[in-house]
Amino acid sequence: MGGPVRFRMEVDDVGLADAAVTAAVAEVERLERKYSRYLDDSLTNRINLAAGTGEVVPVDAETAGLLHYATTVWRESGGLFDLTSGVLRRAWDFRSGRLPEQSEIDAILPLVGWDKVTWDEQGVSLPLKDMELDFGGCVKEYAADSAAAQLQRHGVQCALVDLAGDMAAAGPPRHGPGWPIGIRHPRARDSAAATVILPQGGLASSGDYERCMEIDGVRYGHILNPITGWPVGGLVAVSVLAEQCLVAGSAATVAMLKPASQGLEWLEGLGLPWLAIDRDLQCHGNLLEGGSD
């Protein structure tokens, strides 16, 4: 999942807690094995290896549900949320300190486009050799929701799942309105830009600070526009609270992919609690209203 997994919970029975944690960890590991593009035997890798062959790789109901969701967000975002855009990493090495040539990006862009993917409830096919699906844009948030659901099924009603910053609460702590969560400052790694309270549901954040490089005073983050192939230049950090971490994560990502003013309009129109930080490090949004520090 690309980072540490943490569970916080309040329980009276240690045995119950152990069983719940075991089930939640197993669920995260199951999704990792199934969808990680780094594992040779994952479903994702099987789909990608079949690209350009005409083979339809069978999928189950869970995967079909994720494909439905990805299609909806792709449509609603005007093509900005695109699970085929991971191939752009071939042009962008953020450890190199080097900008790719436009020709390198242009050579990859024909492999990007959710509208090229053929899929239904039974299977999925990628028409072009070297095309890829990358569920990394949604599966970590989905895993946070799934792990929280496992905790609840095993009798834990006060818990917080943290998958490398993607949060899902199975219920608030007993003696407070919710779990206090620090929103990382985009330009000060060990500082919080704000603290919010998460009673239940999901909280996800997206920003230009996890993988980036600075060249000639310009910061290039890892969030790439699937239409242009270049890093986004709008907002620098976005956090969204929603009933599901999956929804919160895609909402935050789409806002990051838009120009700053359009990203703020997108967030405002969702009707969800949100916080965005612009390039002047000014905060926007309603996530801090009512019950937050």
From TrEMBL:
Keywords linked to the UniProt accession: FAD, Flavoprotein, Magnesium, Metal-binding, Transferase
Listed cofactors: Mg(2+)
EC numbers, comma separated: 2.7.1.180
Keyword Transferase: yes
Reactions this protein catalyses: L-threonyl-[protein] + FAD = FMN-L-threonyl-[protein] + AMP + H(+)
Superkingdom: Bacteria
Keyword hit for Protein biosynthesis: no
SUPFAM superfamilies, A to Z: ApbE-like
Matching Pfam families: ApbE
Enzyme superclass (EC): transferase
InterPro entries xref list: ApbE (IPR024932), ApbE-like_sf (IPR003374)
Molecular function terms, GO-annotated: transferase activity
Family, as annotated: Belongs to the ApbE family.
Protein name: FAD:protein FMN transferase
Annotated source species: Candidatus Marimicrobium litorale
